[in-house]
Predict the structure.
Amino acid sequence: MTIDGVKAYRKVAQVEFGKWWEMDPSTGNDPQTFYGWLVRKYNFLDGHLLDETKNVAGYNIYFIRLPDIYLMYAELLAAEGRDAEALEYVNKVHRRAYGYDPDQTSLVDYATLQDRTKTVDPEDHLANNPLLYERWAELFGEMRWWEDVRRLRIGSQEAAYYKTVSGPGAAKTNIVWKETNYAMPIPASEFESNPSSGMVQTPGY
């Protein structure tokens, strides 16, 4: 990667999955140098920012990628009842993820849009929904899923499956789902710049 005119190999975010929580230098996960998957996807780790802020450098953040376009197109095709065509675009994404030619049938192809996916739990609401599962898996960590949850109105299903959300430290908080959670708040700056008494904050905020 060439950055600031210097072409060189760059560090990427990586850690042995399943051991990311073992924050101890003896595991290779020194808290002072640790880089995990969840918040470092597409981030440049060598950065020339201050050490404490380099984890938020915005290098290589894609606005949209071809798999995202394929999956959006598949969604439109499925909505029109063109399931076979939709399935092909879902499979293109799935094939590439497993190292197959996206344009050729493969051993990992889904047979229908209701096939069993790779979710561990068969009760997961994405267990038999290849189109949504592939969106979740392919775009993981790319700041897309919440927008999909809002757009598709599947918040209650997400809440029913996950049940809790992590709080500070190791604390867990029960998810209490409300339909108003789909709405976004009006920024405080808008209220500050608009003195109209008719301007009301979105319910729930």
Notes: Helices lie at 66-79, 83-97, 130-138, 145-152, 155-162, 188-193. The radius of gyration is 21 Å. The first strand starts at residue 2 and ends at 3. Confidence is low (pLDDT under 50) at residues 12-21, 35-39, 48-60.
